[in-house]
Amino acid sequence: MPAPRSTGDRPLGIPTRGTTAPNRLRRIDRWVTGTYARLLRAADDPLVVDLGYGASPVTTVELADRLRAVRPDVEVVGIEIDPVRVAAAQPLAREGLSFRRGGFELALGGRRPVLVRALNVLRQYDEAAAWGAWATLQARLAPGGLLVDGTCDELGRRATWVAVTPEGPRTLTLAARLAGLGRPSDLAERLPKALIHRNVEGEAVFAFLRAFDSAWDSAAPYASFGARQRWMAACRTLRDTGWPVADGPARWRLGEVTLAWSAVAPR
Hints:
Blueprint: H1 26-35, H2 37-42, E1 47-51, H3 58-68, E2 75-80, H4 83-89, E3 97-101, E4 115-119, H5 127-138, E5 146-152, E6 158-165, E7 168-176, H6 193-196, H7 204-218, H8 227-240, H9 249-252, E8 256-260
Parallel strand pairs: 1-2, 1-4, 2-3, 4-5
Antiparallel strand pairs: 5-6, 6-7, 7-8
Organism: Motilibacter deserti
Region (Disordered): 1-20
GO biological process, one term: methylation
């Protein structure tokens, strides 16, 4: 699929499949409010975009509620390319929460958001188009702003996402409901579009997932104390063996791990 291009007033991109559900994006929202609260609080214009929210605006409403706990005057705009979905969302609009038609161009009248959440949006594009969409969105971020691009399963129990700044991607985060997780590499099927086709021999993300599985196997004795303790021990091993893990136990215990993008960037 080609990279999205402008065609007059037509929004950039194509409609998503629209699948969504309450609390599906809770892990991503928890990470944003925990890791980037300072960014939101420091913003002169606390404008946030939920791009491609799908057939139901429920996760956009949840995002607004969660961000309000960090920045009470946050303004969240849900943007969808499908006008029917935009019309259906209007009854839920309120002060600080609105919905409008648009695509990767964001259609914000020149305003630049401090945060763009784009979950389960780019998975239907090919890799080149996904990189093109990143570039389009990066150019529209406020200085120091953040794009969060990722993918999760239908219930939000397994997710991965990339934090992208105007200067480029910074980190990759993996998150999971640890009960029922067989191995860390089970998350490979949820890698963002920029990485999912790179999970092959010779690529950095493949090496990382192999290392994570090895650390998980080494942490098997911790399983008797629960999956959380095993995950935390595996994350500690990753850090201690030289992987540039960017967070620590406070995030690990939530079933997350974040590492520098440079460790997994496509070769």
